[in-house]
Each structure stands twice: as structure tokens, then as C-alpha cells.
Amino acid sequence: MTGKTNDTEQKIILLTIDLINEGGVEQISLRNLAKQLGLTTGAFYKHFANKNDLWLVVTKQLSKNMSLELAPILQKKYDSKTKILEIAKVMLLKFQTNPNLMDFLFFNPTSKSDLNLHSTEFNFLKIMNDLVSNLITENKLIIDKQTLFIQLWSFIQGYGLLIRNHATTFDEELVAQTLHQLIKE
Prior knowledge:
Elements: H1 2-23, H2 30-36, H3 41-45, H4 51-75, H5 80-97, H6 99-107, H7 109-113, H8 123-138, H9 145-164, H10 172-182
Helix pairs in contact: 1-4, 1-6, 4-8, 5-6, 5-8, 5-9, 5-10
Keywords: DNA-binding
Protein name: HTH tetR-type domain-containing protein
Organism: Companilactobacillus kimchii
């Protein structure tokens, strides 16, 4: 029975991710989601207490997926600055290719309210926090970790939104120059 329950929960998560990717989070209704999986709403609520509970689990899954995608970059013998630059490129290109998923990952109600910048519950966020700490140490920067993290995160998210909304196109050189400017002593 446990296997079937876990399988159903995983199916809910995967379908939710597919639906977000296709049409954005605004298009998702729990009733329709349950119906597409052949579940009653009662059966759905056995797995997730409410929409925010589902959003939290999906956010964690997307964070894990992003971490797995970035693993090859992290395993290379790059310094932290290069790793952050390579990660930024991947993220910004994802704003172009999977804009709805990136919007959800960064701006869904759970990520805006429950997501603490120092949380270790979200793999991707933990990776970025660790890289920022290493960046400060490697470059002997005199800046607060949270301040630098917010500056980097703000640039990536802001530039990502401009790309997503077709206000600009991805420019690798701009990303490199901006990162360099942010970590100057």
C-alpha cells in the first residue's frame, strides 16, 4: 500500500511540474489535476493538505532537479566565481527555454514566503549559499555573505525576467562582466 501511495504522490508532483511548464501555475486547479490522474479530490488531499503544501513539495523537487542538472559544473575543478558564472548561464538560459518553471521556482507563493535564503531544505539554494561563502573566502572579499548573495540572486532573477519577457536576450559577456563587478574588492 505504501508503494502505491508514494507512486500516486510522485505522479501528482510530475503532472504538476508538466502543467506548470506548459501553462504556468495560474492554470492549475487541484480539481482538474486530480481528475487528470483519475483521483477524487479526497484522494488528492490524502497526499497534500492544500495547494501550498503541493507547491512546497514541487519547489523542493524543482530545486533538486536543478541541483542534479548543475552537478557536472560543481564537480569540475573550477573556482567559485567560475562555478557561479556557469550556473548563472544555465539558469538564465532556462528562463528562455522553461520560463514558467523558472517563474514558479523563484516566485511561487511558497518560494516567496516560506523560502529562507539560508534554508538547507532546498538543494539548489544550499549550493548557491555554499558557493557564495567560498567566493568570499577565495577572493578575500570584505562583504557580508547575505549581501553578496542577494546582489547575485537579484541580478540573476532580474536579468532572467527580462529574458523571459523578451525585453532582452541572453548575453554571456554581460553576465561575466556583472559578476566581475559584483565581486571586485
